[in-house]
Amino acid sequence: MARGRIRSKLRLSHLYTFGCLKPSTLEGDDPPHPLHGPGFSRTVFCNQPHMHKKKPLRYRSNYVSTTRYNLITFFPKSLYEQFHRAANLYFLVAAILSVFPLSPFNKWSMIAPLVFVVGLSMMKEALEDWRRFMQDVKINARKTCVHKTDGVFRSRKWKKVSVGDVVRVEKDEFFPADLLLLSSSYEDGICYVETMNLDGETNLKVKRSLEVTMTLDDEESFKNFMGTIRCEDPNPSLYTFVGNLEYKRQTFPLDPSQILLRDSKLRNTAYIYGVVVFTGHDTKVMQNSTKSPSKRSRIERTMDYIIYTLLVLLILISCISSSGFAWETEFHMPKMWYLRPDAPEDLTNPISPVYAGVVHLITALLLYGYLIPISLYVSIEVVKVWQASFINQDLRMYDDESGVPAQARTSNLNEELGQVHTILSDKTGTLTCNQMDFLKCSIAGTSYGVRSSEVELAAAKQMAVDLEEHGEISSANTPQSQTKVYGTWDSSCTHEIEIESGNNNNPRVPIKGFGFEDDRLMNGNWLRESQPNDILQFFRVLAICHTAIPELDEETGKYTYEAESPDEASFLAAAREFGSEFCKRTQSSVFIRERFSSSGQIVEREYKVLNLLDFTSKRKRMSVVVRDEEGQLLLLCKGADSIIFERLAKNGKTYLGPTTKHLTEYGEAGLRTLALAYRKLDEEEYSAWNSEFQKAKTSIGSDRDELLETGADMIEKDLILIGATAVEDKLQKGVPQCIDKLAQAGLKLWVLTGDKMETAINIGFACSLLRQGMRQICITSINQDGGSQDSKRAVKENILNQLTKAVQMVKLEKDPHAAFALIIDGKTLTYTLEDDMKYQFLALAVDCASVICCRVSPKQKALVTRLVKEGTGKTTLAIGDGANDVGMIQEADIGVGISGVEGMQAVMASDFSIAQFRFLERLLVVHGHWCYKRIAQMICYFFYKNIAFGLTLFYFEAFTGFSGQSVYNDYYLLLFNVVLTSLPVIALGVFEQDVSSEICLQFPALYQQGTKNLFFDWSRILGWMCNGVYSSLVIFFLNIGIIYSQSFRAGGQTADMDAVGTTMFTCIIWAVNVQIALTMSHFTWIQHVLIWGSIAFWYLFVALYGMMPSSLSGNVYRILDEILAPAPIYWMATLLVTVTAVIPYVTHIAYQRFLNPMDHHIIQEIKYYKRDVEDARLWTRERTKAREKTKIGFTARVDAKIRHLRSKLSKKQSNLSHCSAQDAMSPRSL
After folding, report:
1. What whole-number distance in Å separates Cα of residue 372 and Cα of residue 304?
2. pLDDT digits (tens, 9 = 90+) for 799-842
3. Got the DSSP string for 1186-1202?
4. What is the C-alpha separation between 886 and 894, in angstroms, rounded?
5. What gap in Å lies between CA 919 and CA 394, rounded to an integer?
6. Nearest one of 1081, 1082, 847, 1077 to 981, comparing CA atoms
């Protein structure tokens, strides 16, 4: 069916001047783009998708895949990834060699563990890729309407859409491919597009079809539609497009304003028709999709060095073994009559000992391979997946408002969360909400709005404290319940501050975008003000000067607005609440309902829109020319104050002085400001200007934009200033508290923002990154005309001089409590990031308590992050919420994305995602601390147990003349790493807690254990290795000493090799499991079951294996019930060896806890004896002692106040002592 038009047949193209909109295409006036050479070979036959089924026009399908593998490539690719690891590659070679007779083991004892470990890792890869595949299936199964034949549209899955198809997309649907816009529900082919998923911007973009295709306005019109598009080849540029449309025997040029990109969403438009140009991986969004850089944690990189160390140890003892075997072959083999030296084999021929030693080297490399933990990688992966699931399921990081939980998008960096040194944060949308509230305004020289911003609250509280210290405000007048500050907080006007209680008996219902409170303007009270006409004009500028679309909310009866920016939406909300409600837009008019006119009735007024000069980043202003109902021509303008002020008429500066003062106050309060102005136009002046401006608007050439700018400047002059607005980008909930806790944990915070310096500084005060008494170091660049090398050299010398002086000032500061804040803008940062200056800048920044970089570009964010990461060598974390933060998120060691209102680009590029900045506290201080200690202890224990086990094989081989004989049964070797010792270590990595989450938050300085790497430095690693060597010596030599030289059974029989081997293996299982039990601080029933269950499983296995037929069990037939269990020496040896093996570790932890305890040891002891309940002062004192000294946050502010009070008290005491001494020396006292 044909679709009808909506919204009164708006031709919005008549409104827009700048931006993406170009002049209408006149026949013969606009030549087509010259498309020649490589890169411009694509041809699309519109409404003829069958033409693209054959070469050379066989383009990609619209099926999109983000998986790493498919059925064909999974095995080769995945195996390549697995055997990239040194340990797995070694075991692959060992498994191959085990097939040959030289192997000391059964081949399955080497092959089975390798298959299990590699198979499990491949299953994990397959599972993660399967999730990506299911996400792809979900997207590819979306449906859209596609033209079939004869003007009939049918629903079709996205993956079936082809190049050349004509599609219809409804409101709030995503575009299935890159489309050429043909027409829309608006008469002039305008449509609104949300590109949040592409560039993170929330403001709507305006697209417009060619005039020649606007008539394709219903389904029937496509019955005979045919055309040809010749355009550029697929490329990743989101903002460019070059092509031509051949239609009706004419050629029309195409540009980006006609292209609708895949993953964009149609907004404020009922429907559009478009023809598919690029599909699938040819679309621009897929061309921009890049794989995230491979990130590895510091622990994992250190683990590689440990593996290499063990490989060196393995080769060393293998060489010793092969040398020993060669020695035995040459000198002792002739005496061993049972080896038939008269008819020697190649491997035992005394004539060629070198050959025997070389061949034996292969046997030794296989025999001692258990030094390398084959199950280490897969165990770590299992543990990290469990840790990531705990992060995902943490209800305390779940945001109730948005319904978004925390998400570990990768499990490879869990432990890295516990070692962060520096956090680099975006401001807008990360520290602030990216929600604009109209808070204050200045009209006709009078400031309105009594509600305080977050910055004002923080500053007023601090000022109240300062005044109280000087005795100007009594403590009785500043109760803790005071939350609202009226008036300014300028230090020159301290007596204007009035702090009122936050208790309000008539709380106002929150209104989105409107936080204004002042009865002087509400409910028509502005009519009693001294300048009501100017106030009314102010309201009308807010209600008329915009490009928004109104939508009636049937539930509330109020209009809501789809605007291009949050600021504009807040202005319209303010105008509505003040009584000038924008309610309707037609092609040529806007309609305003004035509810509080002088007559007291609701009056609907129409303003005919003649021209709209829209906002651009270069113009920094927006204007609209309208004609009111009385025929008066008006130009209404809003923009940056610096731009508006220079365009004021002489008689338009009446309110310039007070407005400038108010703008300064608003800026200090952390508010975003705009100035509002207007002028009345004469008919003759407007007609002359409009004629010239229309010529510029329809001109063709590279100077079109310059002509439009000049034309706008001709009319945007002689303005009359009427006031200014101030909106607040509010801080997110809990941001100051989170920053304070992170500062107590010893982390440094840098803020990288695109905002101007004044706004960034004010936000810094609000969230306690800055405070009174902190010395601000502002590095700025001087303005130099021209771009010559001499001028650039002068700028660099000036910046270098500032850096040098600042570094000297910081170094010469003797006050240990002095705090410095470094503030630098993007222009200066361009020079300081160059190679000859960046390390001086970094040295200064590291010495400062806080760093704020203003007006920085996305590329500069990434460069600063790289500088901090490489320059300090410490772990960096970048956090942001927008597409402009993707660079620094990918550059940092850890990237955290916030699921905010700026799209999902940051989240998709991140390693972890959270809903609010405040959840970063728990992510790092709790989960980061736990994951670091768990992984560190787990890896250390892994190497301990493998060294303890592997070296016993070396000792036995040396004991038996380097014969290459294993003392253990092949199935014992098979089960050791895979079953008997794998589950307890996984329990350690998943469930271990040195302290609870509440304690982690109460004692944030515990986090420094990870930053200082106390649990995985080389001293601790070597300590665990030495413990493993000691345990191996005890296990082997105690067992040999006990069993070798005496009878093993009551009948006088001695133990054979299998009895000795089984006894030694029992001692190993007991020793390593008791060791891990001593390592754990937190037990649940799961740990008990896995630890003691592993020991029980060993006995069960030996019993069941021994009961098998001798053809299967071999020499261990009924070894437990007939040989070992009846022998008391077996049980005594097990007990003695186990206790002796763990004595050094018990001694170490006893010494450490009694004489050199760590912070968590003290906390554990206090909690165990419940001293925190019995003695609250002790608990508070310990919390204070276990807190990192910080110079930012609320804690630093309190500490500074305490020091100030102590200083005043000591001065008073000194004065009293001096007065007492003088009185004692006076004649009267004598």
Report:
1. 11
2. 889 899 999 898 888 777 788 889 998 888 888 888 888 889 99
3. TS---SSSHHHHHHHHH
4. 12
5. 10
6. 1077
Residue 513, pLDDT > 90, answer: no
Instruction: Find out whether 590 and 604 touch, Cβ atoms under 8 Å.
Output: no
What pLDDT, on a 0 to 100 scale, did the predictor assign at position 784?
56
Contact 638, 674 (CB under 8 A): yes
Q: Is 478 helix (H, G, I), strand (E, B) or coil?
A: coil
**In the Cβ-directed half-sphere of 887, how many Cα atoms lie within 13 Å?**
14
User: In angstroms, rounded to a whole number, what is the distance separating the alpha carbons of residues 1026 and 1028?
Assistant: 5
The whole-model pTM stands at 0.73
| Residue type (1 letter), 751 | V
Positive or negative, the Cα torsion across 1220, 1226, 1229, 1230?
A: positive
Query: What distances in angstroms separate CA 299 from CA 302, 306, 1169, one per listed residue?
Result: 5, 10, 35
What is the per-residue burial (b if ≥16 Cβ within 10 Å, else e) of 657-678? eebbebbebbbbbbbbbbbbbb
CA-nearest of 976, 905, 973, 975 to 942 is 976
pLDDT in tens, 306-344: 888 888 888 898 898 888 888 877 776 767 666 666 666
d(CA 75, CA 116): 15
Classify each residue of 1140-1155 as buried b or exposed e, where b means 16 or more C-beta atoms within 10 Å of its C-beta: bbbeebeeeeeeeeee
Dig out the tokens for 691 from the structure: 């004629």
Catalytic one of 426, 729, 911, 1058 = 426
Which tokens in the block code for residue 372?
Answer: 């390398």
Sign of CA dihedral 482, 486, 492, 495: negative
DSSP state of 161: -
- The helix, strand and coil proportions of the chain, stated in percent and rounded to the nearest 5, come to 50, 15, 35
Radius of gyration of the chain from its Cα atoms, rounded to whole angstroms = 39
Sign of the C-alpha dihedral, residues 1205, 1207, 1208, 1210? Answer: positive
Task: Write the CB contacts of 1043 (distance below 8 Å, at least 6 apart in sequence).
Answer: 1055, 1059, 1060, 1063, 1129, 1133
Q: Which one-letter amino acid corresponds to residue 963?
A: S
**Cα distance between residue 169 and residue 925, in whole Å:** 47
Nearest-angstrom CA–CA distance, 817 and 845 = 17
Distances (CA, A) of 1021 to 46, 303, 462, 892, 943: 67, 10, 49, 27, 9
**Which amino acid is located at 593 in the chain?**
R
Cβ partners under 8 Å of residue 208, min gap 6: 13, 20, 21, 181, 188, 189, 190, 191, 257, 258
Q: How many residues does the chain have?
A: 1230
Say what the pLDDT of residue 121 is: 78
| Contact in structure between 922 and 740 (CB atoms under 8 Å) | no
Question: What backbone phi and psi angles, to 5 degrees, belong to 991?
Answer: -110, -10
Query: Could you give the 3-state DSSP secondary structure of residue 1020?
Result: helix
3-state SS assignment for residue 286: helix
Tell the residue number behind the tokens 């129409």, with chain if given: 606
* Residue written as token pair 């403001």: 203
Residue type, 902: E
Helix (H) or strand (E) holding 694: helix 683-697
Amino acid type, 1106: G
Q: Which residues pair with 622 in a beta bridge?
A: 638
Alpha-carbon dihedral angle through residues 992, 994, 998, 1000, given to the nearest 10 degrees: -110
Q: What is the predicted pLDDT for the residue at 1047?
A: 79
The more confidently predicted of residues 676 and 217 is 676
DSSP output for 1135-1154: HHHHHHHHHHHHHHHHHHHH
User: Catalytic: 718?
Assistant: no
C-alpha span between 1224 and 1214 (Å, rounded): 15
